[in-house]
Structure formats: C-alpha cells, structure tokens
Amino acid sequence: MGMTIKEIAKLAGVSKSTVSRVINDAEHVSDKARKKVQQVIEETGYIPNSIAKDLKRNSTNSIGVIVPRINTSTISSAVEGISNIMYDNGYNLLLTNTRLDIKEEIKYLELLKEKRVSGILFFATELTSKHLETLNKIDLPVVVLGQDISEIVDFPCVIHDDFNSAKDIAKYLVKQGHQRIAYIGVQEYDIAVGQLRKKGYAEALTENNLEVPEEYLYKGDFSINSGYEGMKEIIESSRQLPTAVFAVTDSLALGAIKYLKERDYQVPEDISVVGIGNSDISSWITPELTTVDYDHLKAGEEASKILLKYITGDKFKGKLLMDYHIIERESVKKI
Amino acid sequence: MGMTIKEIAKLAGVSKSTVSRVINDAEHVSDKARKKVQQVIEETGYIPNSIAKDLKRNSTNSIGVIVPRINTSTISSAVEGISNIMYDNGYNLLLTNTRLDIKEEIKYLELLKEKRVSGILFFATELTSKHLETLNKIDLPVVVLGQDISEIVDFPCVIHDDFNSAKDIAKYLVKQGHQRIAYIGVQEYDIAVGQLRKKGYAEALTENNLEVPEEYLYKGDFSINSGYEGMKEIIESSRQLPTAVFAVTDSLALGAIKYLKERDYQVPEDISVVGIGNSDISSWITPELTTVDYDHLKAGEEASKILLKYITGDKFKGKLLMDYHIIERESVKKI
DNA sequence: AGAAAACTTGGGAACGTTCCCAAGAAAAAG
DNA sequence: CTTTTTCTTGGGAACGTTCCCAAGTTTTCT
C-alpha cells in the first residue's frame, strides 16, 4: 500500500520518468524497460495517484452535476444519460444533491470549482442574483438543464418543449373530434408546467376557433388529489360536460380518471383524458393513458454533449429544445 | 482567474502560510491580517484548489459509489439516502455506473482507488474471483449493498430481509384465513428473490401445516407478463382454485391481477393477491396492492453510516438486515 | 526592567505526479 | 571510422497546497 512511482522506479531499476512513460504508454521506452516496469507494477499492485496527476496537469476528468433530488424518474434518467456520454468520453461524475435547497446550489457551485471539475451540469430551479454572481466567479463551462434561463444568463440550456408538446396533444384531441376540452393545470409560478403548457393548450384551441368556458378551467397543485378535485369541480360546475380533459401532468390525469371512475363515467367512452409526461404509472392504469413522452435520458445525453464541446471551446448558444412525442394509448376516443 | 494562495499572499502583504491559516480558519492569525486576507479573497474571487490540498493531506473527502444503473427507483432512492448522510458528514460522491457490465465494476474499483476516495459503496451484482482480487488490491473500506456476500468476503453488507419479509407476508395471508395459497416466483439463480423469498413462503406454510400442491407453484421471470402467464397456468391446472396468490414481486402480482380481471375473477373477493417491493405501481392499480415495503433510502443511509465508521477504523462485521414492513391495502380479503 | 510565556509570522520541504531538457546509447549515414 | 540522426534515459523543477520549525513580536508575570 502507499506505493509511489518512485518506489516502482527503484524496484524496476529505472527512473520515475520511465515509469511515468510506461503508465501513460508513451513512446521512447525500450521493450525491456517496459516489461520490467509492468512486471513490478503487477507484483506490487501499484495504482497511480490521479490527484497528483491532476495537480500537475492542472485539470481533472471530472464533471460536476448539481441536482435538486436524485430519486425522481426524471432526474435519475437524465443522470443516466449524462453518465453514458461522460463515461464514454473519459469523464467521471461528481454528484451533488441540493435537496431542493437553493442556497446549497451556490455552495455546490463553489465546491465543484474547488474540486476543479472541467464543467458543470446544473439542474436549475430558481435563479437569484447570487447565482449569477457565483456562476460568474467560478468561471467554468456550465450547461443548465430543465429551465430556460438563456435570456438571463449566457449559458446553454437544455429544456423540454413544454409549449409545443402541450399544443400538439391538445391539437390531437381536436383532431379526434373533441370540441369541449377542459383544462386541469397548476399555478403559473411554475413557468414550464403552469405557463407554457397552458399557453400551448390555449393556442391549440383558439387556432381551431374553439372557445373555453370559464368552468372548464381548473388550477391546482401537482398532486393526484388535485386532479381528482379538479375533475370534480369541472363536472359539477359545467352546464354541458366536456368530452375531453387536458391534464397538465400524468398525475393530474390519474386523479381525474379516478374521479370519473368513481362516478361511473367511462374513460374514454364518456370522457377522454390526456396527460403529459409519460410517467411510469401512465402505462399501468386502466385505461392506459395517452400522454406526451419527454426523453429525459436523451436530454441528459444532449446536455452532456453540449458541455463537452463547451469544454473544448466550442460554446453552444441559446437553448436546445428537446424532441417529444405523443404516445397514443387508450384514454382518448375518436368522436 | 487561476489565482493561487501565493498571489493572494502577495496582494495581502502576508505570507502564504498566513493565507492558508485564514482559509482554514486556524488560530494564530491577527485580526488585522485576517481581515486583509479575507478582503483580498473577496475582491479577487479566489477559490482554493482542493486538489493540491488533497495531495498534501493525502486524503480526499470523496466517496465512490458503484451502481449497475441509476434510473431505477430502488437505486436512485438508495443513492439519495447515501447523499443525505455523506453530505452531512462533509463527503462528496463520485458516482460510477457500470450499466450492468460486470467487467466495468473492476475498472471502476480501480478508478476510484486512483482518485483516492476514502471509501466505496458498492451495489454488487455477481462476485467473481477477479472482483475479490481487486477488492483486495485497492485496500479501501468498501460496503456492499444489495447482495449478501459477507460469507465470501470480509466486507460489511447491507441487504433487505427477503426471507423474513416473504415469510411474514405469507403468514399474514394465513392469518387472514387463507389455506390455499399459490406461488408465483422466479428462477432460483437469483438468490434474494428466487431462493430466499420462496423459502420464506414455504416455511410460513409448513409452520402452519399447510400443504402446497404442485400445481400451485409457478416459476417465471421478472416481467409482468410472467405474472400473467403464471396466474393463467395456476388457474387452468388447479382442480381446486387457490384463495390467495403470493407473488414474489409487485410486477408479477400486477400481471396476475391483470389475468384475473380479464377472466372476471374479483380481486380480492374471489382471489387475494400480494406482492413484494412496494413499487410505485402498487398503489396506483385497482385494487391497491398489499405488499412489503423495503426502505431503500434508509438502506443507503445505513450503508453510509457503516462506511463512515469503517473509514474511521470501526469496522462493522457481517451483514445488516434492513427493516421492512407490510403495507396492507386492498388486494387481500379476510375469509 | 528583565525573563518567561504566548502569540504571530514567514520560509521551505513535502505530497506524487508530469514534462522539459540534457546527456548517453544505439543506429544510420557518409 | 567518424559524423549525424534517432532513440532511450534520468534528473529536477513545477503544480498549489499544508504544516513544521525557527524567528520575531507582543503580552504577562515577577
């Protein structure tokens, strides 16, 4: 244990330079010397110290990742994608978890700089001025995931296309013949889900000259129960029932379906329902949910590729909108 | 940028020793010097280089984590637990993902040693002799998660109590009055799920003097479809139908329920079903599934605590069996 | 006031590598 | 056989810290 290059050199009867050359299989080493060194390394179980190496080289092959949580399918899939690309390119992941505490983000940004990571993948939540200051200070390539902050700060962003996907699945409902489409959403301080998806829904309807009565609109939180309550309120307050429901997430759709089932409405025969997100549940429930699939794994991969280029000096400008696709399953009926 | 302690020292008009003392807020620094240094650090945005520090100190505050995948709820929850404990104790996570490739495990074990991590949390799959050799060679504290290898190799293991939990939920069925309990399992090369859970089931029944006819036993794979097929086979081949089904995972239970529903058997009125694992789906399906909950997050936390002690020289011997509890929901009827 | 104690400070070696440079050895060219 | 070229080798500085030690300064005590 605690072997160093120097000791290997002594044992092999060569200089540490030669050992270094063997380790990094560089040129200018005779076969004889190489063999001998390899043998000694093998025998002693020597494993080089990459801390020393990193110090000398003044660079690491580590990438910092900042997430607000790990055990969500969205984030863990993205991290899986990140690890795919990064490992293939010889980088390691230094994973930090803010546990939804914004102040920790600042701390971890600095910590990752201390560790001299080559770049950072940052799952952003909110952006304060303190963030901007820190991002500036650490002077590292950063790619932001999940939030579009490309207008506030000059870092590449990788985001899902909330607006167009919402619009498309709303258009899909219209195309299936639906004219009365209710909306179950969330508060608008959430930009992606609360604003963009709603805007997509609204635009799809107006473009098709469809009006939305006030009583078709519900805004709650992200819980399943909120979907249940929303559906209840819409059903109870509508003079004429909608033929379809546009829920802004799969959980909300699930809650809506639960309520409908309880009241003996058939889905999709009486009322069609769509969600967004293609969560695990969406394919387990009956009827299987028609929804929008975002490819989180691929988002992680794309963000990684952008970061790698950034590190080598080729900076992506603006934001990358990820692809999506509608998964047609059983919860929508053509009328 | 690229500031060093030396440059800060020059700017502050002190020696680098003094700057070092300020950074590590050590004693023996006059207020005046401290103020001045802090001011210069603030102005220049200097962030210390922890690579140099680690090299000098000959230790890092990093923990290596080796996982076979990231985006499963089991693993991501465990990693969340790990990050909780580790961050609270000042450690960072170096995350490596083998993508189910056993050879990569060896590679990552060595890589983490190169990085001079303080310890490793290893989600093991299989253990080859090459593994043992490498584990030996790297000479680091390692805690193994998810597999009981405490008899083969002298590292602490943290595992779920497959045997007792299976036995308990089988006993629960008996207690609810069930006498004819069918079994849907998996092949026995999987020790935890294939062997231990089956053993728990078998023991619960024999202890209650219940016999199991051969046609009540089915062995497939881990897929939902396998649960479906298993249920089908059991129903079709039994002279007398079972009143309950013990499925070795939630997915299998789900498949079984799917088949029963299709054939218009009521769950749990006609046949009760239990699973194991408390997967996400288990609470979404109708009827909600009675199952066993393993606390993966806590397993990660406990493993982390054991590793931290190990690092400070206090090695846990043998294996830690995690707690579990039965979640009673709707899929079992008392008879 | 002088001695002792306590605090403050700076210099320099060390951590384990890499990589430049110079020198020695071998091979090729004349 | 000498000169040039190419290959191989080792020595040592450097990367940015920490930490020991010695020296200088201030405070406390008698």
Automatic annotation (TrEMBL), chains A, B:
Residues 3-57 form the HTH lacI-type domain. GO terms for molecular function: DNA-binding transcription factor activity; transcription cis-regulatory region binding. CDD domains: HTH_LacI (cd01392), PBP1_TreR-like (cd01542). The keyword Transcription applies. Residues 2-25 form the HTH cro/C1-type domain. Pfam families: LacI (PF00356), Peripla_BP_3 (PF13377). InterPro entries: Cro/C1-type_HTH, HTH_LacI, LacI/GalR-like_sensor, Lambda_DNA-bd_dom_sf, Peripla_BP_I. Keywords: DNA-binding, Transcription, Transcription regulation. The keyword Lyase does not apply. It comes from the Bacteria. This is Transcriptional regulator, LacI family. It comes from Orenia metallireducens. The lineage of its organism: Bacteria, Bacillati, Bacillota, Clostridia, Halanaerobiales.
